[in-house]
Design a protein that fits this description.
heterodimer; A: 1 helix; B: mainly alpha; three-stranded antiparallel beta sheet; 4 strands; 52% helix
Chain lengths: 24, 221
């Protein structure tokens, strides 16, 4: 209940995490 | 309001516990939100922002933290003023000041905060694998200001994906309003017309389950 199931991969420079980080 | 245990940290003194911030939810679970919750919070928050645009002269403000996103008992999601909004009231606020904030800037900031809620607890060198539709939604939300419609080719040129992916991009290449975000969130469902009820139910459950967990943890303590 309420659990988040997700896969984790290495961060990529072109990935969304990098793009979001550049904005913040 | 629930009659048992201390209130969730951060709740204003007095009054009933009818709302939780996204930050409180993240802290309590100590894990990120799931994808369905992300779609739901996006949809519900844009719904309330859209209503605010038409029903009041409330100034637009960027979302600066998950603490501003309030999930209500009934499944509504609203955007609260920052706890300390002095920063936004300074004359130097300029582009980021809420009095000059555009709808696309609010959407951009919302996309960033939703992504951070999905990314909560992950290390800097780790990246969560999101479903393509949600990643594209957030990507476009967070880049709305830069994209500004005419830069859509940039995304398509950068991603030489499958044809159906191209179609998906075309569908979401023009997020300019809260309504656009809501339409995309609705399109995520097999029956778009169920979006209002479905996403409200998801947020209502998010609130209820978080309160249940809080009560449980309080009893354990």
């Amino acid at each position: 209940k309420g659990k988040s199931l997700y896969k984790i991969k290495p961060r990529h420079d072109s990935g969304i995490k990098a793009k979001i980080s550049m904005k913040t | 309001a629930d009659g048992e245990g201390p209130r969730v940290p951060g709740e204003a003194a007095g009054g009933s516990q009818d709302e939780l911030s996204l930050e409180e939810i993240l802290l309590l679970y100590n894990q990120p939100i799931n994808e369905e919750q992300a779609w739901a919070v996006c949809y519900q928050c844009c719904g309330s922002l859209r209503s605010a645009v038409t029903s009041s002269s409330q100034p637009r403000r960027r979302v600066r933290s998950a603490a501003q996103i309030r999930v209500w008992r009934d499944g509504a999601v609203t955007l609260a003023a920052p706890a300390s909004d002095t920063e936004e009231r300074t004359p130097a606020a300029g582009k980021s000041g809420y009095s000059h904030c555009t709808e696309t800037e609010v959407i951009e900031s919302l996309g960033i905060i939703i992504y951070k809620a999905l990314d909560y607890g992950l290390k800097e060198n780790e990246e969560r694998e999101l479903s393509p539709p949600l990643e594209q939604l957030i990507d476009h939300m967070a880049n709305t200001v830069e994209a500004d419609g005419s830069n859509d080719e940039g995304y398509e040129a950068a991603d030489e994906g499958l044809e159906d992916e191209e179609d998906e991009k075309k569908k979401i290449s023009a997020i300019r309003s809260y309504r656009d975000v809501m339409k995309l969130c609705a399109a995520h469902l097999s029956t778009e017309s169920e979006a209002p009820n479905h996403y409200q139910a998801v947020c209502r459950a998010l609130f209820a389950e978080t309160m249940e967990l809080h009560t449980f943890l309080t009893k354990i303590k």
